[in-house]
Fold these 3 entries.
Entry 1:
Amino acid sequence: MSDLKQTLKEQIIEQLNLEDLTPADIKDDAPLFGEGLGLDSIDALEFIVLLEQNYGIKIADPSEGKDIFQSVNSLAAYIEKNK
Amino acid sequence: MKIYVTGYGLISAIGVGEEETLDALRNERTGINTGEKEETKAYKVGEIALSNDELKERFKLSTEGSRTALLGMVAAKQAFEGHLLSDEIKTGLISGTSVGGMDISEQEYRNYLNGEKHNPENYKHHSSGVSSEQIAEELGITDFINTISTACSSAANALMMGARMIRSGMLDRVVVGGTDSLTLFTISGFKSLMIFDADWCKPFDNSRKGLNLGEGAGFLVLESEKSLSISNKRPVALLSGWSNASDAFHQTASSPDGQGAQLSMVEALNVAGLKPSDIDYINAHGTATPNNDLSESQAIKSIFKEAIPPFSSTKAFTGHTLAASGGIEAVFAILAINKGLLLPNLNFSNVIEETQLTPQLSFEEGKTVKHVLSNSFGFGGNNSTVILSRVD
Amino acid sequence: MYYIHTISSITNQDSFRNEDVYASLREFDKEIDVVAPDYKEFIPRNSLRRLSPILRMGLTCAMECKNFLDKNFDAIVVGTALGCLKDTEKFLNTFITSTSDFLSPTAFIQSTHNTIGGQISLGLNNHAYNMTHTQNSLSFEVSMIDAFLCIKDGKKNVLVGAAEEKIDFLEKVQPSLIPNGYPLASGASFFAISGEKSKNKIGIQAVATNFNSINLENEIAQFLAKENCEMVDLILTSGDVVKNTTSKIESINYLKITGLHYSSSAFATHIAHDFLKNNDAETALIVNNLCKGKLGLILVKKG
């Protein structure tokens, strides 16, 4: 699980061009949107692309993403459950 | 100073010209169907059945161009019919487009990526400015040519630019509007944003899922008083108000309260010297995306308060024709004014929970329609409003 | 007169925050794209991560121009012929090569021509008039015409400029698009203008466009006569040096300096401004006939 989280952080940095961040800057339980990393609705769509490309998980309705993309923890849990 | 409209033309999925368009509107017949081309067959789109060659032949087009340019030529020629070029009337053309010649470029670029025969000559149609030059060439207009590319508000901005140039005396007459063809680029783009409705779009409905794309063109001829005295054309409407404001909220999303939309509508009313209660019908932007329709509803509520005039989105007829929409919908506004129409908002069943607004649901004729307000909002927070008025 | 209060250019030359661009001009340097500042000093990191070079240049120049104002611009007018080519090409690649149901949307949303103006409105939190003109080689000139109309309409401070970006693919197709031998370039130039006199009293007296240009020398003479201008001190031209009967000094082919893009005349206007500011001279004319049959004329003046 912690390997998955580390990989996820690297993938998030690449997919969203967060070039100034390192995986260590992203806390497992920190909110990714709003106050956290300051991500927005376009980033949520990039997460959907990321999940499909790297984990074969398809989220057809972007509104489902709200809970899944809360933090690295929630993302990792969703991937574990659905892969 | 009054800005007179003395001609109009349009082509969209519901038809070519006034007669076909009115017939579809009256019979509530949408132009949106499952696409018939390779790139559109997976979607519900407002596709124009005529191929490029059929367009050239049927409308006797003598200038080459991308599909965007050809559609523009069809609508602009209709609008300009009966108008004569004259040294005494300084005449311009201002066209809005977002895709320009992308329909050609994307095919060519695919060939390039696939290592197939690649002809760089074809990119000469790419730039949006070229499509306007081609439309101007078809009409013989050389005094002034301009292209505006503010995404989905492009045509509305072209109307506004034309009116301001007439008012300042830079031009006497100007053909204004917009054109966009369906391209794989825009289809893929809206797919990437996950804002397509796989079914028919439902503007202002609580369960709306997203938009259907369309293609087409709509153009008007604007003239000054001086130009009218020479051209002897009969004005069919006035372009009385216009405005452009910035939402400055997000690259693609509209602000929750529709701040840019509010600013745009208020300023257009100011330019026209009208009160909100003077507006008889609103042709909304109404793309049927969850975000736009909520934001636009909030903006309409905040301006028109308890007395919201009949409003509808006609995008369930034509699909969202992007840069052309403001031109096509300006023609709808003129038809509404001259024939006393209220245009129906198709596919509506339930009010949006947060705003509780019911759009105009049926086609009505014989109404008094003096002033129509038409919204066009684009990516980048580019919000524009035009107001068309009856010539009294 | 439409007075120029601030100019900011990011180009192949050392033009950013340079008080005398004219004096430091050199031949175009093919080894570099643009001499860019560190964008992180201007644009918040969270915005910067998505921005292509044209957006970085445009937004940074706009922010620089804003520095002279204590309030926001009353209008923003942007010219670009080919717009956000990098994101356009990126998205073409995405959807042509992808077999997935899900496509990355970022390049698409940043590919429209008005992304430059839109990003400026976001960066400056500006709700005013925001327009994007895309008229090929005359995109900057028509933008200027719109900016002047804004001032005539009663708006006070207007930001107007142009930006273009070069991509490698453009070099492959250049012979079919702009068949001349100049190196392709990127660049952005933005101007804060108003009807109120600026410190050095330099402004733009007039801009003219001609979409049916037949006789360049006649058209220039007619324009200057209309503007009551008998003698210009400097002529900047795109391409062939204009036969110089009206100018005291040699005319300069600005494409050798700016490189070739459709909005090079914007940077030429910056050069003209700095020439007038730092020399005993009163007028400069920019002659833009980059595309056959299309002519743009800009008269820059001190006074």
Note: The mean pLDDT of chain B is 97.
Entry 2:
Amino acid sequence: MKNKTFVLFGRLMKHILRSPDTIITVALIPIAMMLLFVFVLGGALKGSIPAGTNYATFLLPGILLMAIASGISYTAFRMFQDSQKGIFSRFNSMPISRSSALWGHVLTSLVSNIITVILIFLIGLLVGFRSSAGILNWVAVGGIIILFILALTWVAVIPGITASTMEGASAFSYPLIFLPFISSAFVPTETMPVVVKQFAEYQPVTPIVNTIRNLLAEQPVGNEIWIALAWCVGIMILAWIIAMRIYNRKAISS
Amino acid sequence: MEQSTAIEVDVAVLVKGILKSFEGPKGATNKVLKGVDFGVKRGEIFALLGSNGAGKTTIINILSTLMKSDGGTALVNNFDVAKEPGKVRQSISLTGQFAAVDDILTGRENLILIAKLRSVANPAKVADELLERFGLTEAANRRVSTYSGGMTRRLDIAMSLIGKPAVIFLDEPTTGLDPEGRHEVWKTIKELADGGTTILLTTHYLDEAEELADKMAILHGGTIIAQGSLGELKKLFPPAKVEYVEKQPSLEDIFLAIIGRKADLNASRNADPNAGTNTSSNVRSDTDQNANRKAGN
């Protein structure tokens, strides 16, 4: 059983390059949100964020997570199409390892989301995002972002291979896209009513956003980096186990 | 013992007592296959006939290692599908019910993709040969989304040939195609069989089985209720009565005749600068032929 992940990755990257609108659509709403918050609401919100912080710099980590949450809905969509059209069946009846078809999609999801993230960083620079962080902090930021993409990608695999309608395959991502609103992504949680504040502080987005923000601002990350990593790795492993069980349920292992 | 092995060497697919049920709603089990037996000889076109929902696709899925059976044995190219799925996958190619082609890629890219997945030497050359053989050279660099149904199916079947699998499964190869597309695909399948490939196809079109298959089996109520060649199946019925029936062209004959003429017209118009005169004479001769046909009737 040969592993052909890279051949299948090449196929899916052609899809993305031939319909660049998928990357643009993914990035469009987060970028519009960024512009809205920086230029419309930013002035009014300035009082709530730590003094001397540029609002674009404060905002960017949350926008990144939002873009990733919307990006993985395309991962689910592409997998849904492959399973509906019998393309998974074709690959799985060929002498290649069964996991190749799945990993081809996971790798594509990772690369396309990284492209989106870079795009958002660049537009962030245009609207005032600045960071003086050193290479190590940037590597750490990159690592957390990659973990977050992989975690959500494996979440997306589940509807991707089980959904029976196109809407079902991508609707799961809507709550994920809006999760940053009830977190420290746009305003510090201190300003929220107690119940909302509790939710905001104990959901995964807040520690991830705070960790990325502090790494980029060269501030101490404290325990939050471990909480952020635990969320990412925990979601990834749980989703991976569920996805693999579903994927291998019917098949004959070899 | 010796005798039975000698027979099995000649057999490309052997199915014995295959069982399969699915969980229905409210925990009810739906027994789809209740002990299916049949065999396909090497180089044969074998049609599995049955109405929709009879379990034809389930059998194909079991034989192509996509689904586990609940009991019985199935051998493909002398490998047990449950015990040696890897070797089975090396021996087969599946062309599923819906053309599993990537319509964002071009026809050529689809072929190259499969050639790479099957680790075939020189994927580009293999792709070009198949494009030529299946009359897709002109459309090779167009996205598959622009192909007609018949072209898509032909590409689909071409993709199945890469790596020269011993057995090809075609699950309802012409469902959803227009008459022209069906004839294109039939022609393709006959050419394949002439090349010595074993073909197991499913269909619910009886004329398709009659047109293509050397042997056929009828799947009904979870078992094979009859199998053999068309001649053998015909013997199961009362002898034919001789009746005189006026031969009318079927709507399909008419449709194909008109479409065929149209294609000729276009071809001559493109080829010949003086097409105008040719066209009118073609049309006239058509009308004459039709008039003759009517007079004959």
Note: Residues 1-7, 271-297 of chain B have pLDDT under 50 and may be disordered.
Entry 3:
Amino acid sequence: MAHDNSYTGQKFEVVGNRFLRPDGVDKVTGRARYGADANAPGQLVGLVLRSPHAHAIIKKIDTSRAEKMPGVKAVITSEDLPDLTGGDAGMAQTLENCMARGRAMYDGHAVAAVAAVDRQTAKKALQAIKVTYKKLPHVTDVDEAMKPNAPVLHPWLFTAGVDPKPEKPSNVISRTQMGHGDPEAGFAEADVIVEKSYKTEQTHQGYIEPHACLASVTPDGQAELWVTTQGPFTYRSVCATLLGLDIAKLKVTSSEIGGGFGGKTHVWVEPLALALSRKANRPVKLVMTRDEVFRATGPTASTSIDVKIGAKKNGTITGATLELRYQGGAFVGMPWAQLACMTGFACYDIKNQRSVGWDVVVNRPKVAAYRAPSAPMAAYAVESTLDMVAEEIGMDPVNLRLKNVAKEGAQAPYGPIYGPIGIEAALKAVKKHPHMKAKLKKGQGRGVACGFWFNIGGQTCVDLNIGTDGTVNLAVGTVDVGGARASMGMIAAEELGISYDDIKVVVADTASLGHNDTTEGSRGTFSSGMATIFAARDAINVLKERAAKMLDVPVEDIAWEKGEAKAVGKRYSNLPKLSLKEIARKSPNTGGPIAGHNEVVADGAGMGFAAHIVDVEVDEETGLSKILRYTVVQDAGKAIHPDYVEGQMQGAAVQGIGWALNEEYVYGKDGRLENPGFLDYRIPVASDLPFIDTKILEIPNPNHPYGIRGVGETSIVPPLGAIGNAIANATGVRMTHAPMSPVRVLDALDEAAGMDQKVSAG
Amino acid sequence: MSDAVLVTTKVNGDVVEYACPTDEVLLDSLRDRVGLTGVKEGCGTGDCGACSVTIDGQLVCACLVLGVEADGREIGTVEGMAEEGELHPLQQKFIEHAALQCGICTPGFLVAAKALLDKNPKPSENEIRYALAGNLCRCTGYDKIIRAVQDAAKDMRKSRKR
Amino acid sequence: MRYESPATTKEAVALLAKEKGEAHVLAGGTDLLVRMKSGLTEPALVVDIKRIPDMTTIKTTQSGFKIGAAVSGAQLSDHKALCKAWPGVVEATNLIGSDQIQGRATMVGNLCNASPAADSVPAMIAAGAKAVIVGKGKRRTVPVEKVVTGPGTTSLKRGEVIEAITLPKPAKRTGDAYLRFTPRTEMDIAVVGVGISLSIERGVVKKAKVCLGAVAPTAIVVPGAARALVGSKLDDKALDKLAAACSRACNPIDDKRGTAAYRTRVAGVLARRAAKIAYQRAGGAA
């Protein structure tokens, strides 16, 4: 039955409260089972051998010694993973990223893998594999990779989207352009024009749980995969394709997930674990080390960006352009620069704008999504430049933003016309916030920046089953990355009109539920929330039918109110109300199990907008920046469980803070990653931070019954720009290279003071 | 192949025996031999705190201790925090304050926070932040974790007075 | 790998002397186990010294303190008299890693790991710490600055172990301090470290020792920096001279943690700040 997804302004009893999460006790007692916490009888330990070179031909892999070692049950190379992708270029790139095929494309690229009876034996076996490499020239910097004399990674790669078509291969995958109006005409109208170039370094999602899985393939072509993932159904279809398995015969169970942030949306070692298990005919457990996670899973793009913004003295932006160069690692994957083009100017109503994106390959690991992928870098460039425009025309930077803010009816950079959106309200809330009035001392500065993220919906499926005691099982197919089971339980309780405590939510495996798209794009609560509402409404219809039977009245006369069926009309005034529990108890005799199901392509994800305020203190002798105070204002559409909405806002902001100040991949001249660990890849620690204040705005999404918008990603977008603006406010110096680490800040201060020698010069 | 040794130790109050290779770390012994998978591995190099346990009451990273070193010592893990079916106040407050999202860092945070409160029942916000700096969390931005610890400390002081 | 946990220093020395393969002392293990995990070292023998009573205690002697080689950072910070006498040394050691690391990491391990960036080392050297080295039938005491010879190398001979670190009883009106620069507040390796100890009389610095870390292959004592302080009341001129002497003494490298130029500059900045703290601790007016 078709359901209407329109927002109705329904009053809530359950939603909006702060219930305890159902998986809380398991998680505080150590009982919750994550990727590495499952075991199977006879399981082997899998380990992967990785390239130490940034770019090299693999001349020979001699596995003979390893294969003969006692306790070694399987050794695989790319020969054990024949190309079954059938012309699907993207899938072929995924396969090659999982295991090098003749050429190692980056430091950390998998070359071979072993399965052995224990870790010690597997380690020895790895050491016994002899790989003969012939090193090739490499390139790891996006700007260098675009130069005509750069080493070309793929001889088959010809830039798409340029006219005329290139005759020679290069590292540039594609050029994309979007926008509207005439930026050049806009610049001609401008009183001031600011142009600036920026660079941002590569960062990693930094989830604390490394990738881990337990794979079991039997000779009859059946397989199981227990894995930490954001997308069990996607992992299933990708692994089935790469291994030549039937989709239905590969059961993927998503474990509790120890953080993902986009990094667990793609397969990395899972196909290898399955291939090892198939060859050894034993279950194989494969857990990545932290070093492998940094070197060989998907960090975000490093970028190089040019911005040009022209404005009138009254603050009206007359024209704006963006040129975005994003490296996506060694393979052709998502068009990251294209995504950036869509987001850069999204917070503003700019009549004349153009964004040009260049997607580029380099000898680094294949880039994956990282929370609002591609948006934070573009926003860093745009939000920094906006503050410079404000300074040029002598206008308050928040007022400048408000003057140009995108409202309902404005056109997004990528074409569509906005419906009701929350960025104006967010900026107004910022202006009113006490944080903006707090006094700053010498050496301290304040910055504000905005951020946008699309949010997505997608294929979703849930099952809602009512037990004979009236308690309810809800099976969802989006994974719970941060409290989603609580939110889904609350939504089901709201619809059914029963107690939250009577609902048990589970994340189903792929054999037990229809396809669900990966939990990405902040779609979990939006999509599964919508499907849960619809499934509950279906169940209510069944409940009403059963009640009608029990009361012996036509079903049309039954209404469902506050968890009870009631016959409506005077002639029924002597009939009792029937609670869900009563109807459930009788269900074996009234028609059998009571359930509700929903399969939906959740459309109309409401866009997410946020504005952040940050106070920073800069130690001008060392270049060290300290975050003194931080406030996040974000539109959630409707906060189902405010605690977990705040949690997303705080967590995203702090990831942005880490990116802004210290996090970066450091590659040596040899093309090897020098900091693949939490010691030198510096994510923020508790003592680096203040409390992160939050203000949730609720501007309903018209395309969701409850008004929900995704909230997970947007707040990683503003911090880089906000902190850059705060540093500029504190020191008078504009930072154009993120992270704005002490050495870079000191350099910028020196340069402003007229010193030539750079402390960053190696 | 590494030499294996028999280790007799006490884990969460129970006598436990296991045989492990001499070069195996306590983290692996606890997870793979004793079955305590609440002790998490985030890095294996002492940089994330997910494997925080106590040895004779002293907070350590189990990834930086050999399994054989546990012989004759007393080990405490997150699995031993709840007593007689009742959650430790820290465990309760972590749930109440939504101080966990993915929860992978939670066992380590709880063990470390308990070690702090055992030593310092009334820590300042700053003291809590520094004491927990060895525990990385990537989901929460630490905000609700710090609040949960503050609240648990308050409750524990109250119940001590009673 | 053989694992031994002897009960006496003598036994430990005998085990180490006898081993023909790679042998390591296991104190806190916070460096050794990381190196073993990454495959940088595959020892044939590991000698755990944490069951040797002499090595796990802090003794207060007539001449000062004797800190066993297996004493953890957490034990140091619990020792009130030591914290009062040499706050800089204790703080420096406590800066190594987290509370979890502090439960294990030792000053002697920090020293013998021989990283140029070791936090406790410049502080120990500035404070005049000595290492008690025990070999087969021999025992010698050397200033801490004589132990490390280069990155990852020490002057210890095969079969020799450091049993303890001694710290003198501080002279009256002595103060010490250690500061390091790291991008994060915790969980980092020093980009630059400065240890300073000084004694004053009527506000005038009479004696000083300045030692820098992470700016050369080993921690370096900077006599010129000490001279800049001696005779001063820590006025700006003396501090300028101190900073200049420190920066001049630097011989750093560029690496992922910092550039040579940055280290050189910040060595001077931190020296000024550390000197002020030491001076205040010695009883000088801030």
Note: Residues 35 and 41 of chain C are 6 Å apart (CA to CA).
